[in-house]
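name: query_chain
kind: protein
chains: 1
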Amino acid sequence: MYYVVDAETGEIVQYLTRPLPPARPRKRPGRLARAWGWVVLRWMGGDRF
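structure:
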């Protein structure tokens, strides 16, 4: 499971079973781009796929 965490608030904003496709999100690309940089896999042992 992938968790997308907002870099500003630390809140989990999205749950993913697989990485997002390369296409950019449509709304608020600046904020989501920062949040996408904080994809966390700690709950699966910290491994990055």
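note: The longest helix spans residues 29-36.
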